[in-house]
Task: structure prediction
Amino acid sequence: MNGIYNATGPHPVTNKEFMAALRKVLNKGWAPPAPAPLVWLGAYVFMRTEPSLALTGRNCVPRRLADHGFRFRHPDLEAALYDLLGKP
Result:
């Protein structure tokens, strides 16, 4: 395998879905959404990335990995978060 690959999970989710899964895994309750101006500031200052990635996102699918038969250990976001964060 060579070339460019999207290294993403096999099932894209919205930021809202991602944050809900993260709060569930961390056993946290509801949290208000971050105001867009703070997201812009945080993206530039802390992450040094394009703010639109955090505000609008990208719908990427790892098609080339799938075409080569790559198997994800945790294709489900919630299972992946539990594994990454060391939760049972």
